[in-house]
Amino acid sequence: xxSGAWATGGCAxxxxxxxxxxxxxRLADDHAMPARRVRVLRPGPPVRAFSEASCHRxxxxxxxxxxADDVTAMTVNSPAQSALNRRRFLGGIGAVAGLAAVxxxxxxxxxxxxxxxxxxxxxxxxxxxxxxxTPDGVVLWTRLVPELFSPDGGMPSRRVPVDWQVALDExxxxxxxxxxxxxxPELAHSVHVExxxxxxxxxxxxxxxxxxxxxxxxxTRTAPREHGPxxxxxxxxxxxxDWTHGFYSAYRSMAEEDLDxxxxxxxxxxxxxxxxxxxxxxxATPDVLREGPKDLDRWRMQYALYKSDPHLxxxxxxxxxxxxxxxHEVENDYVGDxxxxxxxxxxxxxxxxxxxxxxGRRSLPRKDGSLRLYRRSAWGGLxxxxxxxxxxxxxxxxxxxxxxxxCEAGNDPTKGSMLGATQEKWxxxxxxxxxxxxxxxxxxxxxxxxxHDGPTGDIIWHDAWDGFPASxxxxxxxxxxxxxxxxxxxxxDWHSTFVNDIKSDFDRPExxxxxxxxxxxxxxxxxxxxxxxxxxxxxxxxxxxxxFFDGDRRGYVTCRLNSxxxxxxxxxxxxxxxxxxxxxxxxxxxxxxxxxxxxxx
Length: 601
What we know:
By secondary structure, this protein is α+β, with helices and mostly antiparallel strands. The chain has helices spanning 68-71, 79-83, 86-94, 96-103, 249-254, 296-307, 310-318, 344-355, 421-433, 469-481, 532-536, and strands at residues 12-16, 35-40, 128-134, 137-143, 160-167, 175-183, 190-195, 203-210, 213-214, 218-221, 233-238, 261-264, 320-323, 375-379, 383-387, 403-405, 438-442, 459-461, 487-491, 497-503, 513-519, 546-550, 554-561, 565-573, 584-592, 595-600. The termini are far apart.
């Protein structure tokens, strides 16, 4: 009997399988699918037991639809928020780091004594998540938000206690770690628990409690020990999930995969307003979402909308995630170092990103509004995973914006940088020191060259690594000089799928292949439209290092590797107009140890 166990009295969570459960569910929709039971929290040992009467059920009543007249009086910008200038806003962010450290200090008592919530709404409407696994720990995340589109989330303006548990079994009977931490109003009552002291390379289960409300049970796992057997790794990567462009049917399939890890490469949310009918989803949304985010309250609502999707929630609950960002978490095609300052809106976007992702204290917003995102993870001796931040330190592209000709300034490292000097040195030093069998670099944007006009010109797209060829060459030169073993890039951003050979010098097509790159399509962005196939397809003849291209299917990518071989499956859904569309494998590729370049199988 574990002293940290809770008896749940048989509390249950319900969810709809049509992608519309929660506050956005349209009860009058003729196409709505019936709700189904997804998990029952079974009774545990009678320690700190609470009765079924005090246990809030995750039902349709708890997730009632938000009618338009409920939000008519709500505004995105309150007068007090509008009056804040940038200095005061950043000053408030500067105080967050100290508060967050306090939130990790264990509390006396437990969450049963927490204050009641107005309206009795269920507080775990955004689900739960885990991330950044190490051999002895993992970050656990949730956010208390009983009212998704209220500026305060429906929570009191004070810190409140939240209980957490980690167990060896899904029924949460063999609890090995537990505690109570503070959820702070300054961090939107989000919780980031950095659990330590776990065993390497094993599966764990976890959950949270606030008063009588219990979250669903999540599954996570720790990384293998550094010097153990090489073993294997299975992970999926994804990006670009505009909520208004379609359902997250790809996540529905991803959640059924047998994975160790999910890597998200950015565009988790988009900065645009949300139409009344929800766009492709044809799901009614409240008026407060019409305009895009411009302040912290509204950014929090944008994340609440996206994270209300049940298939995204389930995939978060099934696997630990490694996350980075791209541009739409702030603004399309922005570069971080362009004006040398961080605007109040950008700082708010960064802070909201932290509040909604399973990352630890090292990524807390700093006094100037920035945050540390790039980081390195190891999967035993098998894989080193370097997660890059390609936005925050990027300079203006030296040769122009968007589609434009290449120029000599792009080859001068003093004229522009994709990663910034500090991050670039960190990456190159880590590659030189790596002893891993596979070296995975997670980057939001594509590294391979994409020649737009062949021998008649030199047009390229400058928002990708093509706009920073000096930064790219520093990496490819290190692959060669340091004899980096099996470097593989995984990228997103393009709403298209590419499989690329990375050349030591893209200006010399005959140069050697030094790495492999897989670029995944979007989860939903661009919907079912044919956009990039017709546009980029004719360019493929000028890019022989691109071994595969598909411009118009949605989905994700799975990668399974062991000591001898890497296999990639391109998983595509036929449509994002339905939440239940199933993914199938469109094409598969393999890489053999010490032989860069993917081969179709």
